[in-house]
Amino acid sequence: MSDLNGLKSIIQLSYLNDSMLEKLVTITDIIEYKAGDYIFKEGDNAKSLHAVIDGKVGLEIEKNSSTRILIDNITQGMMLRFSALVDTEEKNYTTSARVLTDTKLFAWKAEDLEKLFSQDYEMGFLLMKRIAKIVKTRLRIRNVQFLDIYK
Question: Given 3.20.20.70, 2.30.110.10, 2.60.120.10, 1.20.272.10, which CATH number is that of 4-109+120-149?
Answer without folding.
Answer: 2.60.120.10
